[in-house]
Design brief:
alpha+beta; single chain; 4 helices; 6 strands; 6-stranded mixed sheet; 167 residues; globular; Nuclear Transport Factor 2, Chain: A
């Protein structure tokens, strides 16, 4: 017959009973992640309606953007011109998926993916996906602005094979 360690079993039950309400509760929402998601929604809303000055206003006056295969852009005016060019090249909409937010003091670092719908020739439309890192910096007036913005393309998914008809 096996002996049961009654005091150990009781201690484990007590620990479980103490922790189970805490484990069952939803974790508190991260206020910085929420802040980044709201700011990102402001960006997509402005870009998707073609309001490029509103997009640029989300950047600090001394911000830097590091677009793919391009020189580093410095300053809000250069970044506004870049986003205007992106829009003129056919990008109709952008949607962000925030993957991670890290913060310390006056900085927040956002990592994520973005999906862009690009108008093509005729009625054709392409979807382009990128990964990005954005550094948000709290300004003296308490607002958060993009300080650094870098992104590059994700690989295009391979086409799925269509099975050959049986016969």
């Amino acid at each position: 017959m096996r002996r049961v360690n009654l005091p150990g079993l009781m201690a484990a039950a007590l620990v479980f009973a103490t922790l189970s309400p805490a484990l069952a509760q939803k974790p508190a929402a991260d206020p910085n992640r929420t802040r980044v998601e709201v700011l990102g929604k402001s960006f997509t809303t402005a870009f998707n309606r073609g309001d490029i000055p509103a997009v640029a206003a989300l950047y600090a006056t001394d911000a830097m953007a590091l677009p793919p295969e391009s020189e580093t852009l410095k300053g809000r005016a250069a970044i506004e011109a870049m986003w205007k060019g992106v829009r003129e090249m056919g990008v109709q909409s952008i949607e962000f998926t925030v993957l991670d937010v890290q913060s310390s003091g006056i900085l927040m670092v956002e990592t994520g993916k973005a999906t862009m719908q690009v108008a093509g020739a005729g009625a054709a439309q392409a979807t382009v996906s990128v990964k990005y890192v954005v550094v948000w910096k709290k300004q003296k007036d308490g607002t958060w602005k993009i300080s650094h913005d870098i992104w590059n393309s994700l690989p295009t998914p391979a086409p799925t094979a269509t099975p050959a008809p049986a016969g």
